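Hey,
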Amino acid sequence: MKISKLKKRLSEKRTMTTITMRMPDDVVADLKRVAPHKGFSGYQPLIRAYIGQGLREDLAALDAKPEISKLIASLKKQGINESALTKAMVEAGVMVQNQ
């Protein structure tokens, strides 16, 4: 991640958007149980941390392979089936964020 983006991510003045997400009750219960052991005040900050960690990994992979991202976008425009693209990416070991 570029330094300028990282500085913005670390800013305490970032705006927040409220979302609604449905999750199984047992998953929420597990998150509430794990949160204090990971040093979080509640399960929602833990969810944000999990999402942030996965997002940073996906963005790093995407930034490392911009040509693959462009190729996939082009193939979608050509009418290549989404499931065929996903299957090919899995077989090739390529992880690219959905376009």
